[in-house]
Amino acid sequence: MIAALVFALAAQDSLRDSFVVVGCNRMGEKPWLKQKDENPSSANLPQLHQTLKDVAGLTQTPWAFFFAGDMVMNMAHDDGETLKGQLDGWSKEI
What we know:
The chain is mainly alpha-helical and 94 residues long.
């Protein structure tokens, strides 16, 4: 289904490969626990910011951005509170 969407959207543009795919961008549990107050998202923020800067600087603006990796690292058994905090942290970064 995603492939069909990719090809349908690409057909609207003569440049058919103007998309970006990135992988996992989260920190491991131990490094994140040391800085979760400053970084609730668990994202590797320096890498995330550089990736977004690099994509923004492309000469051809991509028509799609696929995030194919783990966004968060929710290893807590707390009815989703840690997960909610990580996702809220992500929303502030992007």
